[in-house]
Write a structure and sequence with these properties.
Radius of gyration: 24 Å
Number of helices: 11
CATH architecture of the largest domain: Orthogonal Bundle
Helix content: 40-55%
Structural class: mainly alpha
CATH superfamily of the largest domain: Winged helix-like DNA-binding domain superfamily/Winged helix DNA-binding domain
Strand order of the largest sheet: 3-5-4
């Protein structure tokens, strides 16, 4: 297959996709017979596997080269849109300079902004993931139940497992939709906030001490008398 044809095919698939499409999905579309053979030989006998072996029409290396050329092609200022690698896939995006006009034309979905509380909680998840609710609440100093629930509903965070600590609390991480929503390919693409990260490290050191050290008996009038985290109302979210 000529390289230009491969590039155009990949371009058409990305253009038609309504969400970031992984390179593996494009490769499967280009090599359907190979995929079918691999699926059928999984449950077949060894003697049959050799008969169904087929060489791929397009290799992963060839496809990646074509995708890299697409990224370079649409980076040119002549184009008002670009192809980005987002959420471990590829998708067309309007370039930032043209965003105000697209918005003015009413072509963007009307999405409610995240509140400050939700953004603060989301930032903690993004930079500390995987993170437990107790860690989030320790850092923010308030109950995070409502904020976490809203972030789960918006599919910006997801439950990614359980911590290997007492009680096996749930762990929260950012989702694939989070990466798509903010136009990044993974947590490593988040802005490097040195001061924020240092502050988080200090909080985590204190949090771990808080978790492992016995709580001293509170004296009258001391801070320990109010051990429960303050609740936040839904109106504050």
């Amino acid at each position: 297959m000529a390289d230009i044809s491969l590039q155009q095919i990949a371009e058409s698939i990305i253009f038609a996709a309504d969400q970031p499409i992984p390179a593996a999905s494009i490769l499967n579309a280009l090599n359907p017979e190979v995929v079918k053979s691999e699926q059928s030989t999984t449950d077949s006998e060894p003697a049959e596997e050799a008969e169904s072996d087929k060489a791929p029409i397009v290799s992963a290396e060839e496809l990646q080269e074509a995708l890299d050329k697409l990224l370079t092609k649409y980076a040119d200022e002549r184009y008002p849109f670009e192809v980005r690698k987002v959420a471990k896939g590829y998708q067309f995006y309007t370039k930032n300079d043209y965003y105000p006009y697209v918005k003015q034309a009413g072509l963007l979905r009307n999405q409610k902004r995240l509140t400050r509380t939700a953004m603060e909680t989301l930032a903690i998840v993004a930079y500390r993931q995987p993170v437990t609710k107790a860690e989030m609440e320790f850092i923010r100093g308030v109950n995070c139940d409502y904020a976490i629930q809203k972030l789960l509903e918006k599919k910006l965070v997801e439950i990614s497992g359980r911590a290997d600590t007492v009680g096996k609390p749930l762990l929260y991480s950012t989702s694939a939709f989070f990466m798509e929503y903010f136009g990044i390919n993974g947590p490593d693409d988040l802005p490097k906030l040195k001061e924020f990260e240092e502050m988080m490290e200090d909080h985590m050191d204190e949090f771990m001490r808080h978790q492992t050290e016995p709580t001293p008996t509170a004296e009258a009038g001391s801070v320990e008398e109010t051990s429960e985290l303050p609740k936040e109302s839904a109106n504050d979210q």
